[in-house]
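Something for you to look into today, if you have time. I want to see for myself how the chain folds. Leave the record below and I will have a look.
***
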Amino acid sequence: MLNGSENLGLVDMELSSRTQQSRMSKVMTVGWLGQTTASLCWILSVFAYGISTTGDWMQLFAASSWMISNIAAIFSDE
């Protein structure tokens, strides 16, 4: 028979498992994959063409912000 603390441990493991599944289901959506791929390509294109002007830095900042937003969406509670 489980005591109270062992039972809480099982509940924590189950919640952790559901959280992992939820995060994976977010990552595997077409929308998330498409946006993340697009932002990664945008970042890589800035480096491919070179960073020589203020506009290039702004492009890099915009693409990086988009990527960070996509990654943060994995960890949101929604």
Observations:
- Residues 4-75 form one domain.
- The first helix runs from residue 4 to 27.
- The chain has three helices and no strands.
- The chain has a mean pLDDT of 82.
